[in-house]
Amino acid sequence: MSKFLKKALTASWFHGLVYHLIRLYALTFRLTVENEKEWMTYLQSGGRVLLCAWHQQFFSAIRYFKTYQDYAPGLMISRSADGEFIAGVAARSGWRPVRGSSSKGGRSAALAVISHLKETGLAGHVVDGPTGPFGKVKAGLIRIALGADAVIVPFYVSADRAWYFRSWDRFFIPKPFARVTLTYDHIIPIHEPEPENDFEAQRQHVEDTMAKWLKLPDQNVKRQD
Kind of pairing, strands 74-77 and 151-159? Predict the structure, then answer.
């Protein structure tokens, strides 16, 4: 990575530029949002909601997630240089970045997200980020939900045409004027594990629920059972 690019990734002006370019680009999407009312009703009635997604799919939601800025939602983002860039973009969407990941600073970041969730009622989480493995929901998601007494609501993005990157997560970006669907799954309640192996059962249930919506380059529509 060049010195210029390293400096740009941490520069506020660059974060702002990229954020506005993303918003302009996303305006070309023919966006449909499905099943938002269920969890919004729960949130507005005093519940706590932890939205979660696969790393490969968060790009398409950046513009729409500006609509939640009044809730000042929290979001855990890694302490890497790439994370610094993502945190800058997220902050311009009204989200409150908390720095840390499963590989570095994860415990303190998780505690900060739990505290934030208790205060505002809303947070987001990338279930397999920042480095995978692909299709694996990490245990931190369940720990945060338990600590904040929050429900989990997965969301997914599908597009009728998209570009796919050769990255660990098969990251994709919808092509201009693509039909893009942002789908919220049903609320998943999380309870204190008893017996002890119930924790893993809950993590596996979330993973199995979300796995049907992972996408590969030859799949232009959402997966079905």
Answer: unpaired
Among 19-28, 64-73, 104-113, 160-169, the minimum mean pLDDT is found in: 104-113
pTM, two decimal places: 0.88
The reply to whether 38 falls in a domain is yes
Distance CA 66, CA 4 (A): 29
| Collapsed DSSP state (helix, strand, coil) of residue 53 | strand
CATH of the domain at 193: 3.40.1130.10
Residue 17 maps to a domain: yes
**How many domains does the chain divide into?**
1
Assign 60 to helix, strand or coil: helix
> Across all residues in the chain, what is the average pLDDT?
87
Q: What are phi and psi of 54, to 5 degrees?
A: -75, 150
Q: Are 88 and 12 spatial neighbours (Cβ–Cβ below 8 Å)?
A: yes
What the block records as the tokens of 90 is 């997220």
Tell me which residue of 214, 197, 178, 192 sits closest to 26, measured CA to CA: 178
158 — pLDDT class (breaks 50, 70, 90): very high
Sheet holding 49-53, edge to edge: 30-34, 179-184, 151-159, 49-53, 122-126, 74-77, 96-99
Which among 182, 164, 166, 184 is positioned nearest to 174, based on CA atoms?
164
The answer to whether residue 84 sits within a structural domain is: yes
Q: Which residue has the higher pLDDT, 98 or 44?
A: 44
Residue 76 is part of which domain span? 3-211
